Sequence to fold (480 residues):
Amino acid sequence: MMGLLNILKKLRSNPEKELRLLLLGLDNAGKTTLLKQLASEDVNHVTPTAGFNIKSVLSSGFKLNVWDIGGQRKIRPYWRNYFENTDILIYVVDCSDHQRLEETSQELAELLQDDKLRNVPLLVYANKQDLTTGEKHLNKDKRKYLTSFNNEKKPKSQNLEFFAWVL
Amino acid sequence: MVFFNLWSVLQWYLRPFIKWFLRKTTRLCELQRICYGDKPGAERSRNVEKSLMLSRTRDVKQVVSYLDNTVLERSFVPRNFPEILNPSVAIILRAKKINPKLHELFIVSFRRCLAQIWSYRLLLEEVEEMRKTHYDSSLPEHEEKLLKLWSLLVPNEDLESRVTKQWQYIGFQGDDPKTDFRGMGLLGLENLLFFASEYPQASSHVLSHSHHPKYGYTYAVVGINLTSMAYYLLKDGSAKTYMFNARQYLPNMNLFHKFYCYLFYEFDKMWIESKPENMMEFSIIFKKFENAIRNELADPASVFRINIEVDTI
Fold:
């Protein structure tokens, strides 16, 4: 969680500030689990998100309003309805889902085209690295997909920060 | 809050006196007053359970822990009832000085309460076990269930392959349902299967609603979220109203599945009636539905039935 808190500290102009965190990513990436973990809730009873979940979490003096939007293809068109006033975008990637790394990178690329997300810090959460399949493909694919973003997209949308951090 | 604490402390001390007073005036112990006075079903069994749990009589406490133990050993099943319940009832009759010849009706009613209360506890264990079993696509028996679900819901169309976009037709998220069961594990799949196999008309009616051009939703994903609702209602005891009011059945896995089917059928109705703008209204409508169900379950007289006949019109 250190990486996240560092971003928060940078943003800490107003100590009472409420922050809006937006969790996006493909289905089964682990967004709801991350949300529950942020809220220190049990993560063993998660169900697929139809629609969205929201939780308010107090963390280091911040009130984080975390929005977790379902990732299945059918509801991805509605993601953009939640862009407004977002302070931080966390994009969750399932590293063990080798087959869909390309799909997830395309979705992310599309997100970054959106004007409403301009100047919004981005955190790419490389989830499930502990799964063996994740470990095996991560090094190869991370370079292929995630870092390729870094090079291609960063010039277009300034102020984006890229992270990959281990759960 | 303070008042509430004070009241519960007061109750703890006053309870024996109140019970003693009522016993002297009615010549009946608390269990008898419940079994004779309260309506059979949820009201009676819930109150018997409360009375047994609060009891400070050593023999009663021992019977309770003995029955709990039969649940842990998974032996509290109808074929063992004579062996388990006869001595349990006998011990409580003796401890409470109840004459079995004068109170035959009490024995029948009390026995039924015990059977319901501990069947519910056993069910809780079984449901938890099934929920904890993760869907495992390397196990043929899991895969067979999944394929059976498809053939029951979509009898006229074969799956082109195991991993295919067709799964989205019955409301899974992607090409492979295996990752959609999540924390509900096999319980989510078994619930969906039961609804499809035992209520074919109702489930295909609900499935067709899920394909509505405007109010459509993801059938299986919503179903798995309803499994989660049914699970929590069972776990926190709210579902006792439903389970104890089912006259012909004791709480068991089938009855849990039926409870789930009821929830699915009713949720679908509420969803369509709400005329949602899109799928993103799910969380709000789902919460509203849960509150409505909790309100109904709070009334011990509630009886739940799916009006399946209606949907054939």
Summary: Strands of chain A lie at 18-25, 52-59, 62-69, 88-94, 122-127. The CA atoms of residues 97 and 158 of chain A lie 29 Å apart. Chain A is about 30% helix and 20% strand.
